[in-house]
Amino acid sequence: MTEMRLSFKEMCAKFDVTPRTLRYYEYIELLSPEKDGRSRFYSAREVARMTLILRGRRFGFSLEEIRQWLLIYRQKGTKPQLQAWLAMADRQLEDLTRQQEALSAAITDLHALRSTAAAELEKLPPEA
Question: pLDDT tens across 52-61, in order?
Answer without folding.
Answer: 999 999 999 9
